[in-house]
Specification:
It holds the Pfam family LprI. With about 150 residues, this protein is mainly alpha-helical. The chain has five helices and no strands.
């Protein structure tokens, strides 16, 4: 079995297991039971929903972080996010390339978009936590200012 075939099988297995393991969430009220998705169309529908939910969460965390930053840091975040989005999209196309335009390629691309989007969300959450921490500690421990005022 070639490496490419093995890669496709592993990705498909992960996607198929995602429903029964509860990793495909938020599908209540739809006509597709993602835990029983078998066809490529059903899996694509479910994968798209999961990606949309991950993207919405990324946008929520990103907006929250931008409100915590100002000036140069905010501009840096905006530039890095634009660059990351371009990288994510191109990387997902590359990852799906193992299917060589087969019917499973869009599913592989969406799965990669979701994986990367969730990872970026966690990264932004970590930055947000640091921003919150620096805001709460800023100005509370300033021995230089105290020394200057006492002199």
């Amino acid at each position: 079995m070639s490496l490419k075939t093995t890669y496709i099988l592993v990705l498909l297995s992960a996607i198929l297991l995602a429903g029964p393991l509860g990793l495909i969430a938020g599908t209540a009220g739809t006509d597709t039971d993602c835990s029983r998705a078998v066809s490529t169309a059903e899996m694509m529908h479910c994968a798209t929903r999961v990606y949309q939910e991950a993207d919405a969460e990324l946008n929520r965390v990103y907006r929250q972080l931008t409100t915590e930053l100002n000036g140069r840091r905010k501009v840096q975040l905006q530039a890095s996010q634009r660059a990351w989005l371009a990288f994510r999209d191109k990387n997902a196309v590359f990852a799906a390339g193992v299917a060589e335009d087969g019917s499973i390629a869009p599913l592989l691309e969406t799965a990669e978009l979701t994986t990367m989007t969730k990872a970026r969300t966690e990264q932004l959450r970590a930055y947000l936590k640091k921003a919150d921490t620096s805001e709460t500690t800023r100005g509370t421990d300033c021995p230089r200012e105290e020394n200057q005022q006492n002199n």
